[in-house]
Specification:
The complex is a heterodimer of chains A (about 110) and B (about 110). Chain A has about 110 residues and is mainly β. Chain A contains no helices and 11 strands. Chain B has about 110 residues and is an all-beta fold. The chains are: A mainly beta (about 110), B mainly beta (about 110).
Chain lengths: ~110, ~110
């Protein structure tokens, strides 16, 4: 079983719609969860972090965490063409490393 | 304030050769982690350095080794290159204990093994 699994893409959404990304993780002791955005050929950029159950909103992004279900999600509201990228879910199972999912590629159609 | 810088940006090597990649951490960061990102995959943790020591290592063979210098910069060395080593190699720096919340990635080194 992979440490972090994301819903397979690619995900294509029209401009202005909501993009929904899902992620599950296997290590129950994980306490920190992150979403990174990676444009093609670029390095990952942290866009959201969440540590407690519930929702966390930052602009057009909302992260949701359910530790009992070992589930993390990211919603992108009012999707823009500039949101077209690969979104990586990451989990911090210990003090040393981040464990990443394979990523979900999002394309926003104008 | 310069962020994390990596060199070179691109590299082509032949199977069996050795390669050294370099990373300068963000100012104020003392911990450096290296990740390998194969095409279409997420980054995979190689190892982390703090105080010039390897703190933890991921599931990578001994062909992958590293070093951290007193100024916190770091090198990743890969010996006996295989075609499968072709990937984007990312360096991330952070203050100790903040590997998740304050980890900044460099732009990466794209290694192609032919």
């Amino acid at each position: 079983q992979k440490e972090v699994e994301q819903n397979s893409g690619p995900l294509s959404v029209p401009e202005g719609a909501i993009a929904s990304l899902n992620c599950t993780y296997s290590d129950r002791v994980s306490q920190s969860f992150f979403w990174y955005r990676q444009y093609s050929g670029k390095s990952p950029e942290l866009i959201m972090s969440i540590y407690s159950n519930g929702d966390k909103e930052d602009g057009r992004f909302t992260a949701q965490l359910n530790k009992a279900s070992q589930y993390v999600s990211l919603l992108i509201r009012d999707s823009q063409p500039s949101d077209s990228a690969t979104y990586l879910c990451a989990v911090n199972p210990n003090d040393y490393k981040l464990s990443f999912g394979a990523g979900t590629t999002v394309t926003v159609r104008a | 304030d310069a962020g994390v810088t990596q060199s070179p940006t691109h590299l082509i090597k032949t199977r069996g050769q050795q390669v050294t990649l370099r990373c300068s951490p963000k100012s104020g960061h003392d911990t450096v982690s290296w990740y390998q990102q194969a095409l279409g995959q997420g980054p995979q943790f190689i190892f982390q350095y703090y105080e010039e020591e390897e703190r933890q290592r991921g599931n990578f063979p001994d062909r992958f080794s590293g070093h951290q210098f007193p100024n916190y910069s770091s090198e990743l060395n890969v010996n006996a290159l295989l075609l499968g080593d072709s990937a984007l190699y990312l360096c991330a720096s952070s203050p100790l204990g903040k590997e998740g919340t304050e980890a900044f990635f460099g732009q990466g080194t794209r290694l192609t093994v032919v």
